[in-house]
């Protein structure tokens, strides 16, 4: 008798339950099928197809140039690789900040063409009507407050946000507005740990921190950074678990040496 192993998908309500029972949520970015499969099998609960693909995949200085078509391509690959993890795709800059109808159509395109389970959008009150429309149509939305890289030219640098009282107060009211609009979670990026803890306690929905301290309900890192593939980016909050840049470099050097020496392929590696 064959036993069909049913893999249960992580859902928005599972994430909320995790918050309520105090179990931390793990999220990593992912941009391709093969890595998504490894991360999914490792037990990462949420895979974020971040628009950081613009930086770590395409080599752009900011996330602004990535297009909806680019994001759909990455998101579809990740969705095919994940059996258990929830897959969230970032909506790219310019696709959801304008007319509600345009934002809605872009969101529907992303859902239909990529197969992801939810979308993430940067911003608060200023995009709330668009988020409401998208959530009401049945698409789960994750918010993103604090350092929102799509607004980098407004901020001027990648420094810690909401250190001043006025910006912290605005962040808190944006967080409540996003929850009210139906967001199922909020990413808090690069804000003081004390503020992130306060926001996490205030909300019923989970917060996922990146550079926002240990009081968040979960954590997210850019996978290329935590694997040590990215070499030029080492912020204080980053924990690098392995130095893949060194390992890949050493493997490539060994391959070059083997090819040059006529040592690869050997007899067992040919037909
Ligand atoms: O694009 C991204 O990778 C992100 C994370 C840093 C949260 O938005």
Automatic annotation (TrEMBL):
<keyword id="KW-0460">Magnesium</keyword>
<dbReference type="InterPro" id="IPR040442">
    <property type="entry name" value="Pyrv_kinase-like_dom_sf"/>
</dbReference>
<feature type="binding site">
    <location>
        <begin position="51"/>
        <end position="52"/>
    </location>
    <ligand>
        <name>3-methyl-2-oxobutanoate</name>
    </ligand>
</feature>
<dbReference type="InterPro" id="IPR003700">
    <property type="entry name" value="Pantoate_hydroxy_MeTrfase"/>
</dbReference>
<keyword id="KW-0566">Pantothenate biosynthesis</keyword>
<dbReference type="Pfam" id="PF02548">
    <property type="entry name" value="Pantoate_transf"/>
</dbReference>
<comment type="pathway">
    <text>Cofactor biosynthesis; (R)-pantothenate biosynthesis; (R)-pantoate from 3-methyl-2-oxobutanoate: step 1/2.</text>
</comment>
<comment type="function">
    <text>Catalyzes the reversible reaction in which hydroxymethyl group from 5,10-methylenetetrahydrofolate is transferred onto alpha-ketoisovalerate to form ketopantoate.</text>
</comment>
<feature type="binding site">
    <location>
        <position position="90"/>
    </location>
    <ligand>
        <name>Mg(2+)</name>
    </ligand>
</feature>
<feature type="binding site">
    <location>
        <position position="51"/>
    </location>
    <ligand>
        <name>Mg(2+)</name>
    </ligand>
</feature>
<keyword id="KW-0479">Metal-binding</keyword>
<comment type="similarity">
    <text>Belongs to the PanB family.</text>
</comment>
<protein>
    <recommendedName>
        <fullName>3-methyl-2-oxobutanoate hydroxymethyltransferase</fullName>
        <ecNumber>2.1.2.11</ecNumber>
    </recommendedName>
</protein>
<keyword id="KW-0808">Transferase</keyword>
<feature type="binding site">
    <location>
        <position position="120"/>
    </location>
    <ligand>
        <name>3-methyl-2-oxobutanoate</name>
    </ligand>
</feature>
<feature type="binding site">
    <location>
        <position position="90"/>
    </location>
    <ligand>
        <name>3-methyl-2-oxobutanoate</name>
    </ligand>
</feature>
<feature type="active site" description="Proton acceptor">
    <location>
        <position position="189"/>
    </location>
</feature>
<comment type="subunit">
    <text>Homodecamer; pentamer of dimers.</text>
</comment>
<keyword id="KW-0963">Cytoplasm</keyword>
<dbReference type="GO" id="GO:0003864">
    <property type="term" value="F:3-methyl-2-oxobutanoate hydroxymethyltransferase activity"/>
</dbReference>
<dbReference type="InterPro" id="IPR015813">
    <property type="entry name" value="Pyrv/PenolPyrv_kinase-like_dom"/>
</dbReference>
<feature type="binding site">
    <location>
        <position position="122"/>
    </location>
    <ligand>
        <name>Mg(2+)</name>
    </ligand>
</feature>
